[in-house]
Design brief:
The complex is a heterodimer of chains A (about 240) and B (about 325). With about 240 residues, chain A is an alpha/beta fold. Chain A is built from nine helices and ten strands. The longest helix of chain A has 14 residues, at about 150-160. Chain B has about 325 residues and is mostly helical. Chain B has a single domain, classed as ABC transporter involved in vitamin B12 uptake, BtuC, CATH 1.10.3470. A two-stranded antiparallel ribbon of chain B has the order 1-2. Classes of the chains: A alpha/beta (about 240), B mainly alpha (about 325).
Chain lengths: ~240, ~325
């Protein structure tokens, strides 16, 4: 079954065409890598898929349901979760609280103005479990502002995973990480079970290539090459626009 | 009973004892004013401190509640009808305020609330058939809840204290609730909140309504306290004063707006009797707060207290090194 199907998606900012007729079909459980030079329209494509931006034309289907007109926040309830290239977390709160906000987002409890949040033990336990998954449980009560960049990246991933997404969109999960941190995050991504479909934007080819089943190459907002790892690496257009021969 | 509950109980006893300690009706009235303005500041703080939305039009909502009480009483209805009408019409205006101003955030939000507040002030000033214009409307009597007369300064203080404590209690519960955490989330990272599945606009709208409720309660207390309402109450300076209470005390804290309300009311009523240019004093104090404790009096004092504590422990003589 197709988890995510993007058809003829087009988006312009004024005269700048950022995505032009993008087609993307990601199977359930697949690991899809999206590559392309700076300004290729990768993050815009993510913003269109999650609904933070509205496309000019084209459609987006999530498990055969047309979500093109569905509000961004509702797509989270339908099983879509994302991380951001630029860390987008709650700096005043603890790591645990960040994870709890991710869980609360899909719970009807979020509208409750009288219960004490810290006494919602099932939520606290789930948040601890989500953090344990990325190896941050031991520092769960540390304020986010006092954590390292690599830890923040893992909090981003933990929050997305905490929502039990069907489709997980990772926007440059290795950006700005040290070699050791990159290895840790890579290890973490490998352990995500196959019932989660992953679409990942990444520049770091060495780390990301062997995570991917299929690769899509974007250039000036268009899909240039798509195929298996070997096919895309071998394609002459890839060398031309991306690997820079 | 732990230390925190003990401190709360002690504070309540101290507040209840205020009229007996002060004695003089004038100062008891000042204390009543502090409490009712503290409710107003707590309401504004929901938006300014927890939602990160600065409103410069809240005196308009405060004034609407006051005017409705005065007008309904002047039309010959009883206190219960007047208060119910003030709350419902006040909340209706709040909803309108929210619907219009929440189209924006940041500076644009401030400008829209400012404009809406000015419109209400203009109506109060110019719609003479309804508001009696500059002459205002007088209220001849205070309500008698459970048959208790509120005519005296002490009795009015006691009632204000009860409502004040309820407002603080409700605010404390709100802040610790999932919805309160959600609201802070929309302040810090609205984009992420939306991606996590939250309805950011609706959360802000709910917070605005809660803020408006506390503001209207304070407005009702104000008109009964003063027994008079005029357009001046809705002026921009009144909105700015309320904002000053929240920011000087410490936005986003429960105690901050209460301390801020105390500061502003005391400057206005007590210090003004001794210093003609009390406005200058208030400005100077505000500048001092901004320079020394930009986060506000309450968080600033906590910070100073902590660093003083650390300095104390550092100055203790170090243990002799063992060879």
């Amino acid at each position: 079954m197709t988890a995510l199907a993007v058809t003829a998606l087009t988006k312009s900012f004024g005269g700048l065409r950022v995505n032009t007729g993008v087609n993307l079909s990601v199977e359930e459980g697949e690991r899809r890598l999206i590559i392309g030079p700076n300004g290729a329209g990768k993050t815009t494509l993510f913003n269109l898929i999650t609904g933070e931006l509205r496309p000019d034309s084209g459609s987006i289907r999530l498990f055969d349901r047309d979500v093109t007109a569905v509000a961004s926040r509702k797509r989270a309830h339908l099983g879509m979760a994302r991380t951001y290239q630029i860390i987008t977390l709650f700096p005043h709160d603890t790591i645990l609280r960040n994870a709890m906000l991710a869980l609360l987002g899909l719970s009807p409890l979020r509208w409750n103005p009288w219960a004490a949040l810290h006494r919602q033990s099932h939520l606290v336990d789930e948040a601890h479990a989500a953090l344990a998954r990325v190896g941050l449980d031991r520092i769960a009560n540390r304020p986010l502002a006092e954590t390292s960049y690599g830890e923040k990246r893992r909090v981003e991933i933990a929050m997305a995973l905490a929502q039990n997404p069907k489709v997980l969109l990772l926007d440059e999960p290795f950006a700005g990480l040290s070699v050791d941190e990159r290895r840790d995050v890579r290890q973490l991504l490998v352990t995500i079970p196959r019932d989660v479909t992953i679409v990942m934007i990444e520049h770091d080819m060495d780390t990301a290539l062997d995570l991917a089943d299929r690769i899509t190459l974007l250039h000036f907002g268009e899909v240039i090459v798509e195929g298996t790892r070997a096919e895309v690496v071998a394609a002459p257009r890839t060398r031309e626009v991306y690997l820079g021969d | 009973m732990n230390g925190r509950n003990l401190a709360i109980a002690a504070a309540i006893v101290a507040l209840a004892a205020v009229p007996y300690v002060i004695g003089e009706p004038y100062y008891v009235n000042v204390a009543s004013q502090i409490l009712l303005y503290a409710i107003f500041a707590l309401g504004l703080n929901v938006l300014v401190g927890y939602a990160g939305l600065v409103s410069l039009g809240h005196a308009g909502l405060f004034g609407v509640a006051s005017y409705v009480v005065a007008s309904v009483l002047a039309a010959g209805f009883g206190h219960a009808v007047a208060i119910a009408a003030a709350l419902s019409i006040g909340l209706l205006f709040t909803a309108g305020f929210a619907a219009l101003s929440l189209r924006a955030t940041g500076i644009s939000f401030i400008m829209i609330t400012l404009a809406l507040g000015e419109i209400l002030w203009g109506l109060a000033y110019r719609w003479i058939s309804l508001t009696n214009g500059d002459n205002g409307i007088s209220v001849t009597s205070r309500p008698m809840p459970f048959g208790i007369a509120l005519g005296s300064a002490n009795a009015f203080y006691d009632m204000t204290l009860v409502i004040f404590l309820a407002a603080v209690g409700v605010s404390a519960i709100f802040v610790r609730s999932p919805f309160g955490a959600t609201l802070c989330g929309t302040r810090d990272q609205a984009r992420r909140m939306n991606a996590l599945g939250y309805h950011v606009w609706m959360i802000r709208f709910g917070a605005f309504i809660f803020s408006g409720l506390l503001t209207c309660v304070a407005g009702i207390l104000f008109v009964y306290y003063n027994k008079f309402i005029s357009p001046q109450t809705l002026a921009l300076t009144a909105s700015a004063e309320a904002l000053l209470m929240v920011i000087s005390g410490g936005a986003g804290t429960l105690l901050g707006p209460i301390v801020g309300a105390g500061l502003v009311v005391i400057m206005k009523n007590v210090v003004s009797a001794y210093i003609v240019r009390w406005n200058f004093m208030l400005g100077a104090i505000f500048v001092a707060i901004v320079v020394l404790m930009p986060e506000g009096l309450v968080p600033g004092a906590v910070r100073l207290f902590r660093s003083a504590g650390r300095a104390m422990s550092r100055t203790k003589p170090a243990p002799e090194p063992t060879p």
